[in-house]
Design a protein that fits this description.
CATH superfamily: Nucleoside phosphorylase domain
Distance between the termini: 26 Å
Oligomer: single chain
Number of strands: 11
CATH topology: Rossmann fold
């Protein structure tokens, strides 16, 4: 066992964590290109945190231009053991009003224009996404959100759309019929890549609006979303502080730490050295154990 290093991917409205001690911004280079921004490292109590603003400081990057492969690779290189994503979401349920936090446990991926795997020709791998979030980390995040004073729903299905436009009413109604609870533009392929990188992943969705499925309300407007974002952001920061307070000093192993043990399909003699070079951080543990 060893200590925790929590990667925090901050979404819209959450760009920094003021409570970090010994904080410093660091550059991390990856073979997948540049991450969204520098990484802010520091500590809260006994827990080391690595914070990455998903859209870059100042919200420079639209959802489809976020380099999720570089972001997850950079967090892995920075020594993260787990990843907590904090994201703005729209609600597809009456009982999930603006201001509510939803700790997601399932996804429906409707993105179409984003590289969604570290693997490919020369190194093929298949990881399970049946249960895409880490139950242990999700429960810890839910407890921390409640301790921070947020109303919390434990469990929910996140519809990941391409964006950057918001949904049509027909789409929003269809997603409700599919059984989805919240909607956003950034969780995929982020969650898939975290699984490939053997990083337990939890997502806390901060509800900003009701999307556009309610026929008696106005459509989603950015001004209203931003106003709710600002109200949610402070709770999001307090969530991180409460998480640091509740984590045990030692981190017990997670089953997600070793998902690549049986996921690599390509025979050793058929593996592309150039691809292996790009996977040096993602696959370092498992490749070191193979001849």
């Amino acid at each position: 066992m060893s200590g925790w290093t929590i990667g925090v991917i901050g979404g819209s409205g959450l760009y920094a964590i003021d409570e970090l001690t010994d904080a410093q911004w660091i550059e991390v280079e990856t073979p997948w290109g540049a991450p969204s921004d520098q990484l802010l490292t520091g500590r809260i109590g006994h827990v080391r945190f690595v914070f990455l603003p998903r859209h870059g400081r100042g919200h420079r990057l639209p959802p489809s231009e976020v380099n999720a492969r570089a972001n997850i690779d950079a967090l892995k290189r920075a020594g993260c053991t787990d990843v907590v994503a904090i994201s703005a979401v729209g609600s597809l349920r009456e009982e999930l009003p603006p201001g509510r936090f939803v700790v997601v446990d399932q996804f429906v991926d409707r993105t179409v224009a984003r590289p969604n795997s570290f693997f490919g020709p020369g190194m093929v791998a298949h990881v399970s996404m049946a249960d895409p979030t880490c139950p242990r980390l999700s429960a810890l995040c839910a407890d921390a959100a409640e301790a921070a004073g947020a109303p919390v729903t434990r469990g929910g299905t996140y519809l990941a759309m391409e964006g950057p436009q918001f949904s049509s009413r027909a789409e929003s109604l269809m997603y409700r019929q599919w059984g989805c609870d919240v909607i956003g533009m950034t969780a995929m392929p982020e969650a898939k890549l975290a699984r490939e990188a053997e990083l337990p992943y939890a997502l806390v969705g901060m509800v900003t609006d009701y999307d556009c499925w309610r026929g008696n309300e106005e459509s989603v407007e950015v001004a209203a979303v931003i106003a709710q974002l600002m109200a949610n952001a402070d709770l999001g920061r307090r969530l991180v502080v409460e998480l640091a307070r509740t984590l045990p000093v030692e981190r017990p192993p997670s089953p997600f730490d070793t998902v690549l043990d049986f996921a690599l399909i390509t025979a050793p003699e058929a593996r592309d050295p150039a691809m292996l070079g790009k996977l040096d951080a993602i696959c370092a543990r498992v490749l070191a154990r193979q001849p």
